[in-house]
């Protein structure tokens, strides 16, 4: 039997908000999204109240989980509600534009001069690095995964968080089908594959339902994935960001304790314009850009190895020079990268002695060097 939103609301009516009002009457709930036997919704409250609401979130999750036929519940607690606003139905969104950065810094992590000191660190994780792209489809996830493997090959303990909530592709690129387990204290155990600790929202939800996530839910869910996952000790955690430079990405860049960001672009002008936006976004929130990667830089014939500069290659290198950002390297558009990627056997893992693995390793080494300068724990 299918679960209905009304059934969920009926259960939530029995959960109390911190002021003692029923959760359903508190004006904080988003719409209830149901996908098969999985339920998602968010609770939007004012930033200063967020601590008091965490227990409510946990209670709401448990109440809905107890409905027969529900297999998974994701309740995102978001601090997106403006003071004084009455959220009657949907959580208020700042979709109208990029939020004012200076007023939205987390109060518990005031800027202390160093951009690195801005965010609370994730226990056990020495450095979090975002892999971002100004637009979709440039090969960001393929790059993130192969860079993670390149960093692993340099002896680091590496994690990968697929934060691309709009289209999580890490399950496909890694071939991971299983669902993560929970520890006794309810933390999610990342899935271990290729020697990486991997977590993706795609492990929890079906790919098609990813589009229902709104900006505030995205940020909150990712924050929870960062902190509610038992990452263990990691030298580097690579975060595969949602593509684009909109509100959700900016909020993420602000709220994830990033040591740096890597921007993936293709050589086309349009992609480069978007990459520039990405750079501006990270600069705005004082996250150092560790470098730009040009993906699908040139076409390499899988048969004869001949190279063609389909998109007029080299644009990203010039752009990086012009903008004063390191250029990390170029990855060819090659059949074996696509095939290995899409079959769940990333090229650094499946063709470790091949030319593509070498390219990713060199770029990973350069990221490692730059991180070491900023983070002595990454050795
Ligand atoms: N260098 C490359 N050579 C050939 N194919 C590639 C290369 N990089 C990525 N691809 C292929 O391009 C497609 C898109 O790649 P990927 O999913 O990594 O992109 P993305 O930027 O993360 O996409 P999205 O924005 O949708 O999340 C995949 O089929 C992937 O295998």
Short description:
GO terms for molecular function: 4 iron, 4 sulfur cluster binding; ATP binding; ATP hydrolysis activity; ATP-dependent FeS chaperone activity; metal ion binding. The protein contains eleven helices and 13 strands.
SSE arrangement:
Blueprint (H helix, E strand, L loop, with lengths): L4 H8 L20 E3 L2 E7 L5 H16 L6 E7 L46 E9 L6 H14 L4 E5 L7 H5 L16 E3 L2 E5 L14 H13 L6 E7 L6 H9 L2 E8 L3 H16 L4 E6 L4 E2 L6 E2 L6 H9 L3 E4 L4 H8 L4 H4 L4 H20 L5
H-E order: HEEHEEHEHEEHEHEHEEEHEHHH
- The helix content, as a percent range, equals 25-40%
- Major sheet attributes: 8 strands, mixed
Report the end-to-end length measured between terminal Cα atoms. 53 Å
Question: In percent, how much strand structure appears in the residues?
Answer: 15-25%
Total strand segments: 13
Report the principal-axis shape.
elongated
Number of helices: 11
What is the CATH third-level topology name of the largest domain? Rossmann fold
How would you explain this protein's 3D organization?
The chain is an alpha/beta fold and about 375 residues long. The chain has 2 domains: about 5-95, GMP Synthetase, Chain A, domain 3 (2-Layer Sandwich); about 115-375, P-loop containing nucleotide triphosphate hydrolases (Rossmann fold). The protein has 11 helices and 13 strands. The protein is elongated, with a radius of gyration of 21 Å. The protein binds adenosine-5'-triphosphate. Adenosine-5'-triphosphate (ATP) binds near residues 137 and 243. Adenosine-5'-triphosphate binds near residues 136, 137, 334 and 337.
């Amino acid at each position: 039997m299918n679960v209905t939103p009304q059934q969920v609301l009926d259960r939530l009516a029995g959960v109390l908000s911190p002021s003692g009002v029923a959760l359903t009457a508190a004006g904080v709930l988003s719409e209830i999204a149901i996908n098969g036997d999985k339920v998602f919704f968010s609770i939007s409250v004012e930033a200063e109240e967020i601590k008091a609401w965490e227990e409510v979130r946990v209670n709401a999750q448990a109440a809905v989980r107890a409905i027969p036929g529900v297999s998974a519940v994701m309740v995102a607690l978001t601090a997106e509600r403006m003071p004084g606003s009455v959220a009657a139905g949907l959580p208020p969104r700042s979709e109208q534009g990029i939020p004012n950065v200076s007023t939205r810094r987390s109060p518990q992590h005031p800027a202390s001069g160093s951009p690195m000191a801005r965010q609370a660190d994730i226990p056990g994780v020495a450095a979090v690095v975002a892999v971002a792209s100004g637009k979709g489809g440039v090969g960001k996830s393929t790059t993130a995964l192969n860079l993670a493997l390149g960093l692993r090959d340099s002896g680091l303990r590496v994690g990968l968080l697929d934060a691309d909530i709009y289209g999580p592709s890490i399950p496909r690129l890694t071939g991971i089908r299983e669902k993560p387990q929970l520890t006794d204290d309810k933390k999610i155990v990342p899935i271990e594959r290729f020697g990486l600790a991997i977590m993706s929202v795609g492990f929890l939800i079906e790919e098609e339902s990813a589009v229902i996530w709104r900006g505030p839910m995205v940020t909150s869910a990712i924050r929870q994935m960062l902190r509610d996952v038992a990452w263990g000790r990691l030298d580097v955690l690579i975060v595969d960001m949602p593509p684009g430079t909109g509100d959700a990405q900016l909020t993420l860049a602000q709220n994830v304790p990033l040591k740096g960001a890597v921007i993936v672009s293709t050589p086309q002008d349009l992609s480069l314009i978007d990459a520039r936006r990405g750079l501006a976004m990270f600069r705005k929130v004082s996250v150092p850009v560790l470098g730009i990667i040009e993906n699908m830089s040139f076409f390499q014939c899988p048969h004869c190895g001949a190279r063609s500069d389909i998109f007029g290659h080299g644009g990203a290198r010039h752009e990086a020079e012009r903008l004063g950002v390191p250029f990390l390297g170029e990855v060819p558009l090659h059949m074996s990268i696509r095939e290995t990627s899409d079959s769940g056997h990333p090229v650094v893992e499946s063709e470790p002695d091949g030319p593509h693995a070498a390219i990713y390793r060199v770029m990973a080494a350069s990221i490692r060097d730059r991180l070491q300068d900023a983070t002595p724990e990454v050795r």
